[in-house]
Specification:
heterodimer, A: alpha+beta, protein yfey like fold, eight-stranded antiparallel sheet, two-stranded antiparallel sheet, globular, B: alpha/beta, Oxidized Rhodanese, domain 1
């Protein structure tokens, strides 16, 4: 009986451990592909100043937003103080390999290869709990990206 | 005995002070700084955008009188569905900031507003500090619409008054 229990523990342990790891890795993988001043979705870091730019705070129906005008950046927080939305038009930032300045078609290809599916064509894509919106100008150029969580 | 007198005086004084009541500023529920921020932004938006504003009671009166209006909600469609809309409102969703405004947003708003530039248009969003409706009103004015009003109180003020919404 004791041997059976030990065998079971040996077998189940790694499976459970791997399960936990895969959730973490999935989140991390997603977060690692967002290169916007190191900001991560679902983080509770209270960004008030980034690179010397002080945010202007505005209320929303479901939380509040910090607007960093000079950086072309908006961070949206929920009432739980977790980051729910990141919006950037800063050309030094990127999400999933898509950068402001790219052509819509090019960005679309990259985002579909990154595992997103078309959600509200032609500019909105979804992967699991993430919605990515490409901000496109009249010349079909991407001038910004908005990533938000879906509850 | 003296100690009891002091206690009694202190108690009476504190009661008297409470009777004067705490100052509550613009709103009995609200804090003054966010109200000031929203008021200053609204003032600047109205000045820069060249549109007018209409208050909750005035707008209700217009609707009760059957005044010809085009009411546009600048909230996202999902929020309109969840919160309800003002009677007869159509959706012309706008982003929260100018920074995120796209050509498609502008085109959709102008399509929703229609070709008649003389009609009265009222745009609204969530509440006074919400700038979606300011962005919409400003675009409409820039595109030649002559009678554009922002309803600052938005859906929150409308519901606060217990006025009907459409879901």
């Amino acid at each position: 009986m004791k041997i059976k229990k030990s065998v079971l523990a040996i077998l189940l342990g790694p499976i459970l451990f791997a399960g936990c790891m895969s959730i973490g890795t999935g989140h991390d993988k997603m977060a690692d592909q967002v290169n916007v001043f190191g900001i991560k979705l679902f983080s509770d870091i209270d960004y008030r100043e980034i690179n010397g730019v002080v945010a202007v705070e505005e209320p929303c129906l479901r939380g509040y937003e910090r607007i960093f005008d000079a950086l072309g950046l908006v961070i949206g927080y929920g009432f739980d103080k977790k980051i729910r939305r990141i919006s950037t038009r800063n050309s030094n930032t990127s999400m999933f390999g898509v950068k402001p300045g790219m052509a819509l078609e090019e960005g679309k290809k990259i985002i579909l290869q990154a595992g997103f599916n078309e959600y509200a064509p032609p500019v909105t894509f979804r992967a699991d709990k993430y919605i990515l919106n490409l901000l496109v100008d009249g010349d079909k150029k991407i001038f910004g990206l908005t990533l938000q969580s879906v509850d | 005995m003296n100690f009891i007198k002091v206690l009694a005086v202190a108690a009476v004084m504190s009661l008297a002070l409470t009777g004067c009541g705490p100052t509550h500023g613009t709103s009995p529920k609200g804090m003054e700084i966010p109200i000031e921020n929203a008021a200053v932004k609204l003032g600047a938006d109205v000045k820069d955008g060249g549109f007018a504003i209409v208050k909750t009671e005035e707008l209700k009166k217009w609707l009760d009188q059957g005044k010809q209006l085009t009411i546009i909600s600048a909230l996202p469609v999902a929020e309109d569905k969840e919160l309800g809309t003002l009677p007869g409102a159509i959706n012309g969703a706008m982003p929260k900031t100018e920074m995120e405004l796209t050509q498609a947003d502008k085109d959709n708003l102008l399509k929703v507003a229609g070709p008649d530039k003389d009609k009265t248009i009222v745009v609204y969003c969530g509440f006074v500090a919400c700038r979606r409706s300011s962005i919409a009103a400003s675009i409409l004015v820039k595109n030649g619409f002559k009678n554009v009003y922002k309803y600052p109180g938005g859906i929150v003020a409308w519901e606060e008054m217990g006025y009907p919404t459409h879901k």
